[in-house]
Write a sequence for this structure.
């Protein structure tokens, strides 16, 4: 190779070689790397923070939903559960959308890294190709020729050092190409995995959207059911109030036709000996479906169907039969203008005109008339007007 021959041409040859080596080094150093853009990284961090916040919100919604499910006994509570479930699903969809954006950002970064790695591989392969072509054209003996063309030992050592660096550079180029190939293969695998994640999130999102539509339909059904219940409750309350007013007049008329002195001794007894809990007290009460306050003229005592109902005090039965919203009912006149009523019975054990003593069984607990479950509706009336039963029983 003439550029390495001794004599006046050596200096110029070295200059060209040094320039070529510097150019090659610059090309290697200038091969694009894979640093993630600062803006893209900050976007990923933002999405990650937003997803974490939404994830915490979903956990809270799940806890509320679990609690509501435990309490869901009425249509109104079921509607509340549906509302919470819809809210939770919407939060999950929001999370999935954020994750989709996050994954798409990552997908873009990985795609850019793959392009950079491929470009680096192509550039280094091109440089290697040029070097191989040059070696082929110059022949296999170029390194030996350079060394043998040295004019003296100093020149020989200089040439030897230079050739060693050229060989090292060629070997480094081969190592860099191998690293680039590994990087390209790695990025391709990452890209495929991230694409699978994106596809999975898309599928999850579609499923959640379908579930949300289903929940919305369930909510519409629940609302329609509540509206139907509202009409039934309004009818029931209206009928109860009408029956109560009619009872007031009926009791007053019967008592005035055949006034009796106070009967029995001692105080009134509790009508259900083994059941003392009260599901609905006497007085004005707020109805959760009607969203209004209505008067409740007695107390409701829950008990299983068939439990014996006891006469709270001695007296004469003045009503025993079906009475509208009260279902099967018994009214006992205790004299002195005081009467007791026992509603929603499943079976009656007395008849009109019968004398009963305190503690006698007059019927069985049921759920007849306007009733949502087995219980005793117990009233105390004075001159036909309802009063607080707790003034007489406890």
């Amino acid at each position: 190779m003439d550029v390495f021959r001794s004599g006046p041409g050596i200096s110029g040859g070295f200059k060209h070689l040094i320039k070529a080596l510097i150019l090659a080094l610059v090309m290697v150093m200038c091969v694009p790397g894979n640093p993630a853009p600062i803006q893209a990284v900050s976007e990923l961090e933002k999405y990650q923070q937003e997803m974490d916040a939404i994830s915490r919100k979903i956990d809270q919604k799940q806890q509320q939903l679990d609690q509501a499910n435990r309490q869901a006994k009425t249509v109104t509570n079921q509607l509340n559960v549906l509302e919470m479930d819809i809210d939770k699903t919407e939060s999950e969809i929001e999370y999935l959308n954020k994750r989709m954006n996050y994954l798409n950002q990552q997908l873009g970064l990985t795609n850019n890294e793959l392009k950079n790695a491929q470009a680096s591989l192509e550039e280094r392969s091109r440089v290697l190709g040029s070097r191989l072509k040059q070696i082929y054209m110059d022949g296999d003996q170029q390194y030996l020729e350079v060394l043998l063309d040295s004019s003296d030992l100093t020149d020989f050592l200089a040439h030897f050092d230079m050739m060693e660096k050229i060989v090292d550079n060629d070997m480094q180029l081969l190592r860099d190409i191998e690293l680039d190939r590994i990087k390209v293969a790695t990025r391709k695998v990452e890209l495929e995995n991230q694409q699978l994640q994106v596809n999975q999130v898309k599928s999850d999102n579609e499923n959640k959207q379908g579930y949300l539509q289903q929940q919305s339909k369930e909510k519409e059904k629940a609302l329609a059911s509540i509206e139907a219940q509202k009409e039934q409750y309004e009818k029931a309350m209206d009928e109860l109030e009408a029956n109560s007013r009619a009872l007031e007049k009926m009791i007053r008329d019967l008592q005035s036709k055949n006034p009796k002195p106070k009967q029995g001794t001692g105080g009134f007894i509790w009508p259900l000996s083994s059941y003392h809990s009260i599901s609905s007290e006497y007085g004005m009460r707020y109805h959760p479906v009607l969203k209004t306050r209505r008067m409740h003229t007695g107390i409701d005592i829950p008990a299983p169907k068939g439990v014996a109902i006891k006469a709270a005090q001695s007296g004469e039965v003045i009503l025993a039969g079906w009475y509208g919203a009260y279902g099967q009912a018994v009214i006992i006149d205790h004299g002195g203008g005081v009467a007791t009523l026992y509603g929603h019975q499943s079976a009656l054990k007395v008849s009109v005109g019968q004398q009963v003593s305190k503690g006698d069984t007059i019927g069985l607990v049921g759920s007849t008339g306007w009733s949502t479950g087995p219980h005793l509706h117990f009233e105390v009336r004075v001159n036909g007007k309802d009063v607080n039963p707790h003034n007489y029983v406890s």
In short: DSSP finds five helices and eleven strands in the chain. The mean pLDDT is 75.
